[in-house]
Amino acid sequence: MTDQAPSPLALETDPQYRAAVVDLLGVLAYGELSAFERIAADASLAPTIDDKDALAGMATAEYRHFVALRDRLRQLGADPAESMAPFRRAYEEYHEQTAPSDWLEGMVKAYVGDGIGMDFYREIATYVDEDTRALVLSVCEDLGQSGFIVDRVRAAIQEDPRAGGRLALWGRRVVGEALSQAQRVAAERDALSTLLVGGVDRPGTDLAEIGRMLARLTDNHSRRMSALGLAA
Amino acid sequence: MTDQAPSPLALETDPQYRAAVVDLLGVLAYGELSAFERIAADASLAPTIDDKDALAGMATAEYRHFVALRDRLRQLGADPAESMAPFRRAYEEYHEQTAPSDWLEGMVKAYVGDGIGMDFYREIATYVDEDTRALVLSVCEDLGQSGFIVDRVRAAIQEDPRAGGRLALWGRRVVGEALSQAQRVAAERDALSTLLVGGVDRPGTDLAEIGRMLARLTDNHSRRMSALGLAA
Lengths: 232, 232
Known about the structure:
Chain A is an all-alpha fold and 232 residues long. Chain A has helices at 10-13, 15-45, 49-75, 80-97, 103-124, 130-139, 145-159, 163-188, 190-197, 207-227. The longest helix of chain A is centred in the first third of the chain and has 31 residues, at 15-45. The radius of gyration of chain A is 18 Å and the shape is globular. Chain A binds chain B through residues 30, 33, 36-37, 40-41, 43-44, 48-50, 52-53, 56-57, 59-60, 63-64, 66-67, 70, 80-81, 84-85, 88, and chain B through 30, 33, 36-37, 40-41, 43-44, 48-50, 52-53, 56-57, 59-60, 63-64, 66-67, 70, 80-81, 84-85, 88.
């Protein structure tokens, strides 16, 4: 898609594009802040001190990502809190609708919910200028959660095989809720949506490519569920 | 007190002293991990995105302190989780007994509870070798919480003066609970207590000096309550 990607100059010359990037960084930044809060809460629920340590370390890394996004928003002349505010409700409803009832549910949520979110942002990154893309890709990197969570969830299912059915249902619910919040955000934020569908002077992607993107997201989600030992 | 302080060599030659230092680093490390969890939970309750950012940043700094203590425990050949485990119950009871019912109570607790804790550890630091002392003092430094919390609490009391009475009672309860947990730890952990009262080959401090230390702790506590605009 890089032939379609705007140049970093467009941030200065194309106000609609700049608004789209501010939206993208805003939604990502609030997502990182809210990931910080959620992983820190998982640390409180963690059974052992070593697990607490591991999760607190991950939460801290999410906050570092948040800081990179916040500082970039400032650099673009945007107010970080204002840029994040439009996305607060979607994240809060997502977290309310998917409040884990125990530590394992928290782990599955972090893995499959954040996983599909990060995949989505990585897809979007192909449609933005290279400076923005580098930042988006760097905050979407895996912080080592994956290995830790896969280990813990598989061990728990081995110990209590009945947990597998419950957690599989839970994983589906988390992703369903994430998708419905994403659709709401797309419907409410025109600027952000134009990154995919194009603007007045910018070509968008075609429907067939959007279809392929959704297929990739679904495939990766199924792969994550399998990695946990869960039916997708 | 530095004439009484052991040399760093004592960590290798005096097993009782080494056990005392491992206890000290363990209690401090679990305290930082638990401060991380609590400040991160305060971030979730924070009314504005900027407040969330500020608190998440502080929680992250507590985790950095935790890492310094954990790594030093490893360097001394101690297992960090094992060294922290004896203190987990005291911290958990403290936090259960002082679960804030709103954001303001969380802020007052962080300020006066952590404040008296850090003061106490700074006092203890005069009785340990210089390497340990430097580490203890560095993790007891103010991370900028103080200014932030004082601003927020004073503003809230100005808006609703009745909050002052409730928060003053709350501050006293927090410190009372902290002291009773500290007494329990002192009673249970002989090695740790010998830092103050001395060991077979090490002089301790005298009762008069312990009295002066308690007076300093109380004075500083009253000063913090006044800074918040609360009666001690």
